[in-house]
Amino acid sequence: MNNCKLCQRQGRQSEDPYFVTETTYYAVYHAPVEKRLVGYLYIEPKRHAESWQELTGEEQAELPGLIARLENMLYKEIRAERVYTLSVGETVRHLHLHLIPRCSGVLLEGLELIQRAAGPEGTGQPVSEADIRQFIAKIKPEL
Ligand SMILES: [Zn+2]
Fold first, then answer.
1. CA of 52 to the centre of ligand 1 (A)
2. What separation in Å is there between the alpha carbon of 85 and the centre of ligand 1?
3. Which of 19, 28, 102, 124 has the fewest CB atoms in 10 Å of its CB?
4. C-alpha 7 to ligand 1 mean position (Å)
């Protein structure tokens, strides 16, 4: 658990450029620039858990409202047409949800978009670090 990279970033949110928001039990981060997708978010429990059944009732109860809030924001701020929500956990065992928005004008959709965005090479769109920082700065006050 000590070498879990998601555990290691807990408590250091203020110095993390990808940090978006937090609730009592979860922290939300934007995906790194290499994914090339503005609005791609991760929801992570603040404590180490590797499956949904390990979460307490309170932790489980908080999650749907947080997903709904982020989804609404993605529909509004970047005019997402769909928001894919998934959990894989093969590379990083610490439970985390991927929120992957599909916007109009993006050629990829469905599993292909998910595979490209979540994979090491990203979507191939011209997304810069500045685009992501601008997006985070815009949504932070609303969350
Ligand atoms: Zn962890």
1. 14
2. 20
3. 124
4. 4
State the CB neighbour count (10 A cutoff) for residue 75.
Answer: 15
Q: Report d(CA 28, CA 61) in Å as an integer.
A: 16
Spacing, Cα 119 to ligand 1 middle (Å):
20
Host H or E run for residue 127: none
Going residue by residue through the chain (143 aa), what tens digit of pLDDT does each one get?
568 999 999 888 889 999 999 999 999 999 999 999 999 999 999 999 999 999 999 999 999 999 999 999 999 999 999 999 999 998 899 999 999 999 988 889 999 999 999 999 999 999 999 999 999 999 998 88
Please provide the CATH number assigned to the domain covering 5-142: 3.30.428.10
For residue 91, the CA-to-ligand 1 centroid distance in Å is 12
Residues 72/92, Cβ–Cβ less than 8 Å? no
Rounded to two decimals, the pTM is 0.94
114 class by beta-carbon count within 10 Å (0-12 exposed, 13-18 middle, 19+ buried): middle
